[in-house]
Amino acid sequence: xxxxxxxxxxxxxxxxxxxxxxxxxxxxxxxxxxxxxxxxxxxxxxxxxxxxxxxxxxxxxxxxxxxxxxxxxxxxxxxxxxxxxxxxxxxxxxxxxxxxxxxxxxxxxxxxxxxxxxxxxxxxxxxxxxxxxxxxxxxxxxxxxxxxxxxxxxxxxxxxxxxxxxxxxxxxxxx
Length: 175
What we know:
The chain is mainly α.
């Protein structure tokens, strides 16, 4: 009888969902997985860390006109310190939906290609509005595709990049 109760307790323990808090996401991405490109990152980890980056960046930008030199240095230090964790959590987010981390390069590549098309169109005799529109549409399309991927739910169960993040596993019997 105890064996049955232990099995039920183990099964119930496995269904408890871990909650990724706001400070958890920041702590995990900065201290535990600073430059960890392997594994998976849930939507909660990715978006909460990204929101932290937007918030800190926005505060620095708001303070920039007040104390220009200090805030300019602080912004550069912030960018250097948080570049690797931001890149790493984005790669792990792609892994979480079953995609290669190399997809992280797509928006940058689209930006470079679009910028090149715009530059060529603007410097030629008579800028072609069609080429400018194509460049803009390509870039906007890639941004929309990236956001779609970042908002997708985790791929259930383990995939080739690792186990499913614990906060993405549904609680049995939850409403």
